[in-house]
Design the sequence.
């Protein structure tokens, strides 16, 4: 009887500890999910995203989001936002990274996106955000109830999910 009680108490402790450990962890996403996504507090959603670069997921809505960040911070012209991570985006990315003390490799990974996320602000309530660039340059983003982020390229244009595999926001 004592052995059964001890086994039951041990099992309950393992389940309780495991549940607490899982619930205390930060938001976790991966490129394999197909979208920029998160859960819980929005402030840590971008820290586990990417990479995108000229050679990795180089044509996508996530690239458009990154290009909008580069535009908002004065590194790209608005006409350069085309969902393609080409030479202009690579050069602008390297300069953006260098100016912020990051490794200037032209790859937009978790460290680069974490730094960019410090410029996010809440817009008019839950699920609506903006990226605050230089001067009056800002653009809007959203986080849907399921945790996936979306974005529009301007007033009157459709909101599109920030997909790693789709480039329909630039069309």
Sequence:
């Amino acid at each position: 009887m004592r052995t059964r009680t001890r086994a039951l108490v041990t099992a309950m402790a393992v389940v309780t500890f495991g549940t607490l450990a899982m619930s205390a962890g930060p938001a976790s996403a991966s490129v394999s999910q197909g979208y920029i996504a998160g859960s819980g507090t929005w402030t840590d959603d971008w820290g586990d995203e990417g990479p995108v670069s000229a050679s990795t997921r180089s044509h996508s809505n996530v690239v458009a989001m990154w290009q909008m960040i580069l535009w908002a911070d004065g590194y790209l012209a608005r006409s350069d936002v085309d969902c393609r991570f080409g030479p202009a985006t690579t050069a602008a990315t390297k300069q953006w990274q260098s100016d912020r003390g990051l490794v200037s490799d032209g790859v937009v990974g978790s460290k680069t996106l974490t730094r960019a996320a410090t410029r996010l602000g809440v817009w008019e309530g839950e699920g609506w955000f903006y990226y605050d660039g230089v001067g009056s340059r800002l653009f809007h983003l959203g986080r849907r109830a399921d945790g996936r982020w979306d974005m529009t390229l301007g007033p009157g244009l459709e909101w599109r999910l920030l997909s790693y595999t789709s480039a329909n926001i630039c069309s």
About this structure: The domain at 28-161 is CATH 1.10.101.10 (Muramoyl-pentapeptide Carboxypeptidase; domain 1). The chain is about 35% helix and 10% strand. Residues 1-29 have pLDDT under 50 and may be disordered. The helical segments are 2-24, 61-72, 87-99, 110-117.
